Amino acid sequence: MKHSLAALVMVGVLSACATTTSSTGRTQYVGAVSEQQLHQLGAQAFTEARQKGPLSTDARQNAYVRCVVDALVRQLPAAQRQLAWETAVFAQDEPNAFALPGGKVGINSGLFKVARSQDQLAAVVAHEIGHVVERHHDERITRQMGAAGVVQLLGALAGDYGQLATQGGGLLAQTGFLLPGSRAQESEADVVGQRLMAQAGFDPRAAVGLWENMIAAGGSRPPQWLSTHPDPQSRIAELRARAEQLVPTWQQARAAGRRPACG
């Protein structure tokens, strides 16, 4: 019976998968789970992350992050704007951040040491939101988890989450939601995120300084967050070239009244 059920789910998963194209023109294979299920997975993973904590109780930090996220979200497509976006600041020293399907954003307090302005923080957050907008989590599940993994995930959504967490270290471990993306995904998130921050009124040139700070913070060994990129210096060169192209977009946003004042 179990094998028959697994086979039926596998057939359903495979038939639901589809090839699509991202906003940058990259071909993607997605659809192993529905958008609703993906949002549920994101919400559960976010809940798990908050439970693990520790969470920052600094009201100014939390308001600062919320302000930046809100400014960026206002420039997203309508379907993404309508989500109930949530933010959390974690009291952890590692400079890191993540965004999850369903409108969830987490920031480590250690990030404030390298993101030294609202524009630099926006560069990080916009990059992470870019992963969500471009369906990278969906793509990752579809390509890497396989049918057996999807069966587990669907089981978690059906009410077996507690058992899944006990057996596999939690939904974050099962989905790989917080693991670095592929090089193609990371590069795409750079493109989409830098464009988004400019549209929201944040200076796209700040992305260059942010990544320079991130590399410097890692000394001779770049932070793990950057490990999926073949050459950090090439990445910075691309960010710098793209920033100059996006300056008119940023200026238009400012002229239209989009002038974030988050801190």
UniProtKB/TrEMBL annotation:
**Superkingdom in the source lineage:** Bacteria
Q: Where is the signal peptide?
A: 1-18
A Pfam cross-reference name: Peptidase_M48
- Give the GO biological process terms: proteolysis involved in protein catabolic process
What residues form the membrane-spanning segments?
none
Query: Which parts of the sequence belong to the Peptidase M48 domain?
Result: 60-242
Name the UniProt key words of this record, in alphabetical order. Answer: Hydrolase, Metal-binding, Metalloprotease, Protease, Signal, Zinc
Q: What is this protein called?
A: M48 family metallopeptidase
Q: What is the lineage of its organism?
A: Bacteria, Pseudomonadati, Pseudomonadota, Gammaproteobacteria, Lysobacterales
Which GO MF terms does the UniProt record name? metal ion binding; metalloendopeptidase activity
What detail does the entry give on cofactor binding? Binds 1 zinc ion per subunit.
